[in-house]
């Protein structure tokens, strides 16, 4: 059984397949034994040289084990200028489009803008919202715009949001540990329980989604 951790900040030994998050300012990532994504996080724009970060992403984009761009996105909970966040997010969408690699998105209180940008950029690449823990209305709107959802502890441990997971289309679902120390197995168990399905069936669904988005057959086998 393969358990896929679509977004993690730590290398975890027990994971069958994990996409390690690398912040663009920490590129180049020289380990070719791990899958990773790289992006300029909205929290970091004011702290790093953003242009240099974009260049680093461009330089790493052709690496076979670099599977996605991100995390990148929009965040209204921070004081950093929103227009600047949007500028650098759009730049990363362009890189993702050019390379036909999916986006792993960090979005806080900016879903209307995110949907607007997706519509405007008419992108065919998959947009995966990581750490999704929004409400029903947001989930329904995002579904209409064909987003993918990656869910972790935040949603799964929130009793008020028990119904949200069931609402998300199975063929658009991923699971993640993000920056927590917990295991991805634990996340699969929690999610399987809420979905009333077996751990194995859930793993099969997520693996199918992963194969579909990342062309698993074409990927270098690192395990
Ligand atoms: Zn993260």
Structure characterization notes:
It is built from 8 helices and 8 strands; from the N terminus they run E-E-E-H-E-H-E-H-E-H-E-H-H-E-H-H. By secondary structure, it is α/β, with parallel strands linked by helices. The protein has a single domain (4-215), classed as TIM Barrel (Alpha-Beta Barrel). An 8-stranded parallel beta sheet has the order 1-2-3-4-5-6-7-8. Helix 4 (136-144) links the parallel strand 6 and strand 7. Helix 1 (50-60) packs parallel to helix 2 (82-99) and helix 7 packs across helix 8. It is globular, with a radius of gyration of 16 Å. The chain starts with a strand and ends in a 9-residue tail after the last helix. The mean pLDDT is 93. Zinc ion binds next to loops. Zinc ion is lined by residues 7, 9, 21, 71, 178-179.
Q: Layout of SSEs?
A:
Blueprint lengths: L3 E5 L8 E7 L11 E5 L10 H11 L5 E10 L6 H18 L3 E6 L2 H11 L5 E3 L6 H9 L3 E4 L1 H4 L5 H6 L5 E3 L8 H12 L3 H16 L9
Helix pairs in contact: 1-2, 7-8
The structure holds zinc ion.
Zinc ion (ZN) binds next to loops.
